[in-house]
């Protein structure tokens, strides 16, 4: 039932920057864990490694018992949401969400049903035919989250997804994400440098040190939801 395991991971880039150093962490299935720490402490490097983007210099990363590369190539269990929504401007909202499903193949009617279901869940049921340029930043981020959810990933990786949004939109999306997490019951790794966001969202916080790439502590956050 372990979803993600980092075992004594070092990451040293070619220019000798040490991004992670003896990093150890184990995340159980169904957890929402935030990676919290100042800029440059290695949060993105750790997250990207889970997605198979970058190998550890030393040590190992396992995701559902696979290596990240295997998981990426052989399954559809991982989805990534970045700070930038990365939508295709010439495709409407529905087609943006459908794109990864279409690339995979399968029953088109079912795919469309699922895309509409997740778009309704993020509050965009009335915007299926809208184009990205017609949407606010918060709505674009909702499309990006819907696109990730449509693939029904077991693991959702989010790298500062709300950092570019205004405070009110950010709060709305934080609460929506908690709601989605409870409904869809997936594992989420969430990178942030915002203490408030980490405490609000996660059931565990991996606090990373300004000394690059060290895990300084693990905090359990005990919030019981109604
Ligand atoms: P964070 O996400 O916590 O801001 P990063 O994981 O992006 O931190 O970066 C950790 C450290 O690794 C930083 O010092 C950063 O400059 C460095 N770094 C990240 N990516 C590369 C790269 N491709 N080449 C060299 N150094 C990098
Ligand atoms: P759809 O399948 O929704 O019709 P397409 O991908 O076929 O969308 O492209 C729709 C329009 O976008 C076409 O006019 C095409 O030339 C244009 N287009 C396709 N790829 C790009 C791109 N990389 N940059 C800008 N425009 C593009």
UniProtKB/TrEMBL annotation:
UniProt KW Nucleotide-binding keyword: yes
Record GO terms (molecular function): ATP binding
Superkingdom to which the source organism belongs: Bacteria
Keyword terms of this UniProt record: ATP-binding, Nucleotide-binding, Translocase, Transport
Pfam families documented for this protein: ABC_tran
SUPFAM superfamilies named in the record: P-loop containing nucleoside triphosphate hydrolases
InterPro entries from the UniProt entry: AAA+_ATPase, ABC_transporter-like_ATP-bd, ABC_transporter-like_CS, ABC_transporter_ATP-bind, P-loop_NTPase
ABC transporter domain: residues covered: 4-226
Keyword Lipid metabolism: no
Protein name, per record: ABC transporter ATP-binding protein
Organism: Gracilibacillus caseinilyticus
